[in-house]
Every structure is written in structure tokens, then in C-alpha cells.
Specification:
Elements lengths: L1 E5 L6 H14 L9 H9 L4 E11 L2 E10 L3 E7 L5 H21 L6 E7 L3 H10 L3 E12 L13 E4 L6 H12 L10 H9 L7 E7 L4 E11 L5 E10 L8 H14 L4 E7 L3 H10 L1 E12 L1
Parallel strand pairs: 4-5, 10-11
Antiparallel strand pairs: 1-2, 2-3, 3-4, 5-12, 6-11, 6-12, 7-8, 8-9, 9-10
Bound molecules: coenzyme A.
Coenzyme A binds next to helix 5, strand 10, helix 7 and helix 8.
């Protein structure tokens, strides 16, 4: 029957096969299947990926699913189950994997909340996890995926006397300050630290992050935008606006828009699409993105579970 084992030092073709089946149902930009090298690169080079928290589900020695837990400042669990399994086996596999992973992270002393990406709305993963977790879901975080469809940006508007800085090294504390002030009213807000900023900006999961910081004339940190370019699995270079943040006392002065336009200008000639994710409740950011030319086209849902 189904048994779950820990990571055994290699990703096999069986894992990649299950991944491809799930990914093609759930993710955009994946017309091209992953191969073993893609898989290794994405996982093993991801700074917060811990192989100890990667479990494989085997049915008669065939890989039928996997699970992993990632601590990116908040803990989340990713789950993948072979969509070709019949419903009973799929539910059993998902349950076994989730239990394995939860015991694992509780053993490591983690007792906080857990987020589980449910995948694209109405997608396979979404239905499966909803069925497995059912009553344990305490909250849904709904996130739009938006794609830039505006006019190319030739220049960024001048906004008063602010200074732009493209080198984040040595400015980690400013980034922490901006981030924590800008996001402090978000549901499930967790403050970032200097170490987390370092890990985040040196991660290459979605290309190398580039950072533009804004300062006032007298050197007060104002805001930042983080963006990166990565080669999606369909081979297209894709720009991602990762995070945009402006400290509350500098908001509503056009500075967020300026930072966003700056990132688009940097990416537009090197990419065939520019995307971003934004939480559905963040109407303010959605309004700004819409004005600049982003259009929502898919919604991904994560569940907060007890
Ligand atoms: C989203 C955010 C970056 C916007 O920065 P900002 O500097 O305040 O935005 P701007 O002044 O450039 O405003 C641009 C547009 O946003 C909208 N906007 C700005 N302030 C607003 C407010 N108080 N209420 C409603 N909409 C507002 C407007 O549509 C505005 O366009 P307009 O100036 O043509 O009217 C900022 O509010 C922020 O840091 N929020 C917290 C972090 C966050 O949610 N980031 C985005 C998700 S990663």
C-alpha cells in the first residue's frame, strides 16, 4: 500500500513525472515539461528548501506523490499527488503525505500556523486538498496573478526630490524597516529580519532578484521594489514584480507607481511577459497595478490550516 519515505538523496524520474502531471494541470507558463535538471535546480538551489522535509509517497514502489515544507518566514507545505490515481487512493496519498510532513515539522519544534497552496482555483490540487483538509482550513488567502498589458514605459515620472539606489548590499536594515512598516497591517503579517532579506535577495528560484530603493533627499528610506527575470518552463523570459513597498508616511504621493514603472522599464526589453501576484484583499495595490496596465487573469488560493 502507500508508504511515505524521506528524501533519499536523489530525485528520480518518478518524482519528476508526478510533478509534471500536477504542474501542467495547475501552473501557468508550463507548456514545456520539467526534466530532472530543472527539478534539481529549482529545489536544491532554493535557499530555504530543507531536504529533510521532503517526503515521497510510494505505491508498490512507484512514486505517486510528494510533499515538502518550506520556511520562507512563514511555514508552508507543498503537496503533489498523481492526478491519475483514483479518488480514494489520491485522498489517502494526500492524507499520508500531509500527516508525515506535519509530524516532521512539529518534531522540529514548529507550532505556528501553516499555509498550504491550493493551486489554481478550480484546479486539481485545489479540489484534492480541499477534500483532504476540509474542516481544518481556517482561512483562505486568495491571490490574483496579473499580467502586464500596458504600453511600454519609456521613462519614469519624476516625483519630487527622491534618490534612487540600485544596490541593496549594506542597506538591509533599511529594507527591513520599509518592509515591516509597509506590510504591518497585512493579515498574518510576520516581520522580516536582516537574515531573511539576505536569503531572499540571494535566492535564484525565480532568477536573480534586482532591487530598487528610494530615499528622501536627507537619506530617509522611503520604499523599494524587488523584481527578477527568469526563464519559465515554456522557454519564455518572464519578468516578475516580486514585492512593492512604500512606508506609510510616504504613501499616496505617486512613489509606489514610480517604483513599479521603474521595474517595468528595466524588464520590458528583456522579457516576453511581466507578471505579479497580489492578494485579493489588497484593493489599493490592485488599483495601482490596474492603472499601470496589469490585468488579473488567474487566481491562486492558499489555505491557512490549524
Ligand atoms: C501599494 C503601495 C506600494 C502603493 O504605494 P503608494 O506610493 O501609496 O502609491 P502611489 O501614491 O504611487 O499611488 C498609485 C495609485 O495607487 C492608488 N492609491 C494610492 N493611494 C491610495 C489610497 N490611499 N487609497 C486608494 N488608492 C490609492 C491610486 O490608484 C493611485 O493612483 P493615482 O495617484 O493616479 O490616483 C503602498 O500602499 C504599500 O506599500 N502598501 C503596503 C505593501 C503592499 O501591499 N504592497 C503591494 C503588494 S506586494
Amino acid at each position: 500500500m502507500i508508504r511515505v519515505i524521506g528524501y533519499d538523496d536523489r530525485f528520480s524520474d518518478g518524482v519528476v513525472e508526478v510533478c509534471n502531471k500536477c504542474v501542467s494541470v495547475d501552473e501557468p507558463w508550463t507548456e514545456k515539461p520539467w526534466n530532472l535538471d530543472d527539478f534539481r535546480r529549482v529545489w536544491l538551489e532554493w535557499p530555504t528548501f530543507n531536504v529533510e522535509n521532503f517526503g515521497l509517497a510510494l505505491l508498490n514502489d512507484r512514486v505517486v506523490g510528494y510533499v515538502f515544507a518550506i520556511d520562507d518566514g512563514g511555514l508552508w507545505i507543498g503537496l503533489c499527488v498523481d492526478p491519475d490515481l483514483d479518488k480514494y487512493l489520491a485522498l489517502r496519498t494526500a492524507n499520508e503525505l500531509l500527516s508525515w510532513c506535519k509530524y516532521r515539522i512539529r518534531d522540529q519544534g514548529y507550532s505556528g500556523r501553516i499555509l498550504i497552496p491550493l493551486g489554481w482555483e478550480y484546479g486539481y490540487r485545489h479540489r484534492l486538498i480541499n477534500e483532504v483538509l476540509g474542516h481544518r482550513i481556517i482561512h483562505h488567502v486568495k491571490t490574483w496573478l496579473m499580467k502586464f498589458q500596458g504600453e511600454p514605459t519609456k521613462s519614469t515620472p519624476k516625483v519630487g526630490e527622491y534618490k534612487v539606489c540600485n544596490d541593496w548590499r549594506g542597506r538591509e536594515e533599511d529594507l527591513v524597516l520599509i518592509h515591516n512598516e509597509a506590510f504591518r497591517n497585512e493579515p498574518f503579517f510576520q516581520p522580516v529580519t536582516v537574515e531573511m532579506i539576505e536569503r531572499w535577495f540571494t535566492s535564484t528560484r525565480y532568477g536573480k532578484p534586482e532591487v530598487t530603493l528610494l530615499y528622501s533627499q536627507d537619506g530617509d528610506p522611503v520604499g523599494f521594489v524587488v523584481y527578477s527575470i527568469f526563464k519559465a518552463f515554456d522557454g519564455a523570459y518572464t519578468g516578475l514584480v516580486d514585492t512593492l513597498a512604500v512606508r506609510p508616511k510616504y504613501q499616496s504621493k505617486g512613489l509606489g507607481k514610480r517604483l513599479l514603472l521603474e521595474s517595468i522599464r528595466e524588464m520590458q526589453d528583456r522579457t516576453s511577459r511581466i507578471i505579479l501576484y497580489v492578494d485579493e484583499h489588497n484593493s489599493r495595490a490592485i488599483k495601482l497595478y490596474g492603472k499601470v496596465g496589469f490585468r488579473a487573469y488567474r487566481r491562486v488560493i492558499r489555505a491557512v490550516v490549524t
